[in-house]
Amino acid sequence: MNLPIVSCVSTQSVDPEDRIDFWEEHNRQALVGLTCSSYAQEGLLATETNVELGDLRLAEIAGNEHVIERTPQTCRTLPKDSIFVTLLTAGCGVFFHEGGCVTLQTGDVILYDTRRPYLFGFPSPMRQLLVDIPRGVFAAQCASGEVSAPILLGRASAAGGAQTSALEALLADWVTGEGGEDSVSTQATVLDLVRTLAAPALGGCAPPAALSQLAVAKDYIARHLADPGLSSGRVAEAVGVSARHLSRIFQPTGVSPSRYILEQRLGKARQVLADPGSRHLTIAEVAHCWGFASQAHFTRVFRSRFGRTPGETRPLVL
């Protein structure tokens, strides 16, 4: 996949005394105007990759301990009319705003308005995935009301946690180039997950659409693929739908939920078998690792899918 990468930068090769100015200038052009302070002895060490996703922009940002601030003056002189959704994938943070502060841990998601001042502090090494949603897009597809204060998403329920996990997987796949070619449906899924997660705080009622339910189902399958007890029934229960409705959700994929599970297991097993570094594993061990009840069954479905046996897939030893 050829990603529409907007920018990819690092402060690593920048002179330590120039890193703050470099980082602020880059973000001013690529994402949002802000000021930055570093409290690390070695100075600010940070990387950022910006990727387009239709009308949205995604950013993966990692760094050591630092603080970013969007002051009232910055909001006036460098206006930005977007809603940001930030998912913290490593580290912790404190988000200060006009009404107080919000503490974030790894896995938390916060939604906030870039027209309003804020300070985001990271006391330890961090990594985040950020979605930049233009206000018009957010109003049309997520919620029409004002985001008067930052909203912490996904903590309130098991369903919210599952949706947050699916959002993280979707964003991470797109940023790394593993998310496929369909930017239209990926953008729609991201926006529907944000809409569903934000609805309780914004006073709306937003049952998830099939796209986001499919994302939650795929994420649940990916996280439980090695479990031999994984079944379409368990997936339906995790998504909160009936088995019949789960089948309808999977119709756009062209396969049933059970077939999708099998295809994913076979694909993972094939990757392991083709890896020279995995030759110490027996075929039975590979089959067991990916949830197959027996080597015989694994060999049969593997040959049916790929036209060769698991043993024939392994690289030759020279």
Structure explained in plain terms:
With 318 residues, the protein is α+β, with helices and mostly antiparallel strands. Helices cover 41% and strands 23% of the residues. The chain has a seven-stranded antiparallel beta sheet with strand order 1-3-4-11-6-9-12, sandwiched between helices. A five-stranded antiparallel beta sheet has the order 2-5-10-7-8. Helix 4 (158-176) packs across helix 6 (210-223).
Indicate the mean pLDDT.
92
Oligomeric nature of the chains = single chain
- Spell out the helices and strands N to C: EHEEEEHEEEEEEHEHHHHHHHHH
Span between termini: 32 Å
SS class:
alpha+beta
Question: Considering DSSP H and I runs of 4 or more, what fraction of the residues is helical?
Answer: 40-55%
Profile the largest sheet.
7 strands, antiparallel
Please tally the helical runs, counting DSSP H or I stretches of 4 or more residues: 12
Share of residues in strands: 15-25%
Computed CA radius of gyration, to the nearest angstrom: 22 Å
- Strand ordering within the main sheet: 1-3-4-11-6-9-12
| Number of extended strands | 12
Low-pLDDT stretches? none
- Specify the overall morphology: globular
